[in-house]
């Protein structure tokens, strides 16, 4: 289950992660509505495990063999608590996503934490699928893990950074085949980077509610929309030749440079809606090459990895 800020993606795989036999997408609205729709779809699917689930105010039920999965993987937008020893493990915490923080619900579990109300997303799934193992990750660490294991980058590639650029900028980091966890999870989309000359000239202040001019505040969909005075739902109407894409490439290239110099991944993968823009990857690659070429070159004399 991928909990995206815009949509949830649900998929069922048999035997291995590449053998997907069913999938669907659900718009991310309120927690109650979105999770209810997700469970309604899952209830129509067939699985191959047996378990028991309990929903408050209802009786405990034994699910039939056909309606319990063997394992559940949840990849969520964040910030989230990934520490299994934490009392708030499995929670979506201080996200700026509307409706998903600073709200309440009679159907889902919330707790007050540092004056914010945070959602126990893993607890919701445990309540329905009692006894089923659940793995919880960020929605960027999970694809980084996938790219390392199944991305076709070669047998020697075990360290990958995955960058998604859309409503926000998220960065997942996989080192030696394992996701990076520490005090929290990587939030490298909020790294501070030098401002583009065009933004300095225009006095563009960025849109991140926490840091204003971090990479996310300067290059995510909202910032692009603000510069071009186009609603973010209409970004596809901006021509490929618009100067805004050079500005976006400036920030995304610097994110790649900083990740390369600090994490040293074998591969950096860019995803998300903004990254699909025709010609943007080429602009990023050109801007990455100049600061990195004195340090990192492949044997083929080309900058490797991006």
TrEMBL record:
Top-rank lineage group of the source organism: Eukaryota
InterPro entries: ATPase_NBD, Carb_Metab_Reg_Kinase/Isom, ROK, ROK_cs
Catalytic activity: D-fructose + ATP = D-fructose 6-phosphate + ADP + H(+)
A Pfam family it matches: ROK
Cofactors named for this entry: Mg(2+)
Protein name: fructokinase
Leading EC class: transferase
Zinc keyword on record: yes
GO function terms (MF aspect): fructokinase activity; metal ion binding
Originating organism: Aphanomyces astaci (Crayfish plague agent)
EC number, UniProt record: 2.7.1.4
């Amino acid at each position: 289950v991928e909990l995206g800020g815009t949509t949830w993606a649900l998929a069922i795989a048999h035997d291995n992660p590449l053998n997907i036999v069913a999938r669907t997408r659900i718009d991310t609205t309120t927690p109650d509505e979105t999770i209810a729709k997700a469970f309604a779809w899952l209830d129509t699917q067939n699985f191959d495990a047996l378990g028991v689930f309990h929903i408050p105010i209802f009786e405990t039920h034994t699910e039939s063999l056909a309606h319990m999965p063997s394992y559940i993987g949840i990849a969520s937008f964040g910030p989230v608590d990934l520490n299994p020893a934490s009392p708030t493990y499995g929670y979506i915490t201080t996200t700026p996503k509307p409706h998903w923080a600073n709200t309440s619900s009679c159907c889902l579990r919330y707790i007050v934490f540092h004056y914010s109300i945070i959602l126990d997303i893993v607890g919701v799934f445990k309540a329905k699928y009692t006894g089923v193992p659940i793995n919880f990750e960020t929605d960027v660490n999970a694809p980084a893990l996938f790219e390392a294991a199944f991305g076709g980058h070669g047998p020697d590639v075990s360290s990958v950074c995955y960058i998604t650029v859309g409503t926000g900028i998220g960065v997942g980091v996989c080192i030696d085949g394992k996701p990076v966890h520490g005090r929290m999870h990587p939030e490298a989309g909020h790294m501070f980077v030098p401002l583009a000359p065009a933004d300095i000239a225009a006095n563009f202040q960025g849109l991140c509610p926490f840091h204003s001019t971090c990479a996310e505040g300067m290059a995510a969909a909202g910032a692009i929309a603000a510069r071009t005075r186009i609603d973010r739902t209409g970004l596809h109407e901006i021509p490929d030749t618009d100067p805004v894409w050079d500005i976006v490439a400036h920030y995304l290239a610097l994110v790649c440079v900083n990740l390369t110099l600090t994490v040293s991944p074998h591969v950096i993968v860019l995803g998300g809606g903004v990254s699909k823009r025709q010609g943007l990857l080429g602009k990023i690659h050109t801007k990455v090459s100049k600061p990195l070429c004195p340090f990192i070159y492949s044997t083929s004399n080309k900058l490797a990895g991006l």
